[in-house]
Amino acid sequence: xxxxxxxxxxxxxxxxxxxxxxxxxxxxxxxxxxxxxxxxxxxxxxxxxxxxxxxxxxxxxxxxxxxxxxxxxxxxxxxxxxxxxxxxxxxxxxxxxxxxxxxxxxxxxxxxxxxxxxxxxxxxxxxxxxxxxxxxxxxxxxxxxxxxxxxxxxxxxxxxxxxxxxxxxxxxxxxxxxxxxxxxxxxxxxxxxxxxxxxxxxxxxxxxxxxxxxxxxxxxxxxxxxxxxxxxxxxxxxxxxxxxxxxxxxxxxxxxxxxxxxxxxxxxxxxxxxxxxxxxxxxxxxxxxxxxxxxxxxxxxxxxxxxxxxxxxxxxxxxxxxxxxxxxxxxxxxxxxxxxxxxxxxxxxxxxxxxxxxxxxxxxxxxxxxxxxxxxxxxxxxxxxxxxxxxxxxxxxx
Amino acid sequence: xxxxxxxxxxxxxxxxxxxxxxxxxxxxxxxxxxxxxxxxxxxxxxxxxxxxxxxxxxxxxxxxxxxxxxxxxxxxxxxxxxxxxxxxxxxxxxxxxxxxxxxxxxxxxxxxxxxxxxxxxxxxxxxxxxxxxxxxxxxxxxxxxxxxxxxxxxxxxxxxxxxxxxxxxxxxxxxxxxxxxxxxxxxxxxxxxxxxxxxxxxxxxxxxxxxxxxxxxxxxxxxxxxxxxxxxxxxxxxxxxxxxxxxxxxxxxxxxxxxxxxxxxxxxxxxxxxxxxxxxxxxxxxxxxxxxxxxxxxxxxxxxxxxxxxxxxxxxxxxxxxxxxxxxxxxxxxxxxxxxxxxxxxxxxxxxxxxxxxxxxxxxxxxxxx
Lengths: 398, 370
What we know:
Radius of gyration of chain A: 22 Å
Strand content of chain B: 15-25%
Shape of chain A: globular
Largest interface: A-B, 33 and 46 residues
CATH class of the largest domain in chain B: Mainly Alpha
Number of strands of chain B: 12
Oligomer: heterodimer
Number of domains of chain B: 2
């Protein structure tokens, strides 16, 4: 019991002004010391930020914030505090130790006794951030609002933002805890602009993971970049060592798209229609004319407007995206009485134009357009990883 | 009003969600005080009598299978100093107090013997001169506000008696202000706050008294008719509140946490339009709550600024942000109706309160024991 602040420690001394413990017993660590926590910890510090080329977890809580302070020093202090808190939470520790019974607890407490759950916290800077704090000259040329695509029905309240926080974990409560505590730390400096919960990966990011299915019931992300493929990561994901501006080297660009699926319409499409739309067999995931999921796509047998054909790198000058999306549902669409569900698309690439080109080809042409609507959109530049003792965005703000 | 019966007192609610924040096991309270174990049994509190030296103490309360008793309170006269409630059999809870020498009551409602004496001996931890000055400042504020409250309530009752609907409506807005400024004080006197300020549904319909059934008559039924009995009781209740407020024992930490509670009131019932659901005067109450929080902070500010100047500055700046946010909704010498606010408006106001309340919540621990 030597590690300080571990979530599992009794929250006894100085927890809250007053409180209740079930059965008079303190909240004990569920996983005892010596458990295999190591495998459940994704290190926060490193060359690149976690949550990009680390294996995709089961759950997502994403939040975009707008900065409300006009003082650059407050923004820097916030990023420092966020980095420290994220490092602790990623290690399965509490945000801080409670100092006094009359003070609110430093950590909100709901992750006590839970495992680290492979929590990763990834930060990004939106184009609008660079309009302030004298950051204009540091804005990468590619960091501008995504262009309008055919068929976009974007809701401004679900789009954009100055700062992005992507928390992924295998336990939804751990992911929620991370965003909640970061929002709390940021109160008065940032306000939340929008937030998205995700469940169920829609892309595997490791060869060790099976290809998951999206809410259309199809395997998704078969040809995704895998983290074992370091050459592809260097070529397509990480901003290179000679790129400008220098502060973004080792970083990447993050695109999010909230893609609503017209579930009710899709569910009454015939199997044949569904497979023609996607360009793969529903059950096996195999391309047309092939037997296995990972068999090469035969374009001569793939419909011209099938989704995988238009999205394939071979059709897009070889440019590839690292996809890391999640399924979502936000309950029911109040206006239509239909399920509000779909894909929260997340991709990382070292140049936003890679996404833009693919999406230009898809929008208005993709057979899938009949069953989906893009309702939210955002682009962020993710700075490189954080060194121990440093903070995220240090290369930009120091 | 809030549903809690004791504000400005250490409260503990045994909601299932509240459990992780405060575990048992540790016998040191934050201030290094002593811990006292109390059992709830069907006979009442155990021990039935207690003598303690003055100073900080944490009551560790466990329900030892009592079906009839689920609550433990420490009373000074009929003023609740601290309590745990909703302790079903097997549950435990705790709260901390700094006790001064004197006679108190341990109260286990529902037990065979409900009350037992608690005698606190010695000289107690001395409040510092600065701490005493802070308490005096806040006491003066409470005295001034309760005086205004009594005077305005009498005027309000007069208009109602005279059947002056327009005059009564105007008087209603004015009389809410002093009450909302000191609400946590009122909440520490058991039934007084619900009697004065309960909203429809907070209490059984036949026990619904105070401001809000009158508000309903004035704005929904458009009449002063039938408000006579309510008005008479209201005057009696605010006079009683003023009398009791003069005897209340306060510590700097209670004042600071009372300020945070006032902002909690804003978040919970003003920014949602629930408090003044008939008259839509919620922004009037909003400002009064903020005024009251400001007065609480001003009272203890000197104690904070000594070692935490940056925190004090941040709180000042955020009070200014809240004022600026409110200013855009002023209309004459009052505010626009809550019903005119858009979602973007309430969001802006709500966030300004959150940004203020977060650093303000750090103050209680800093001024404790001063």
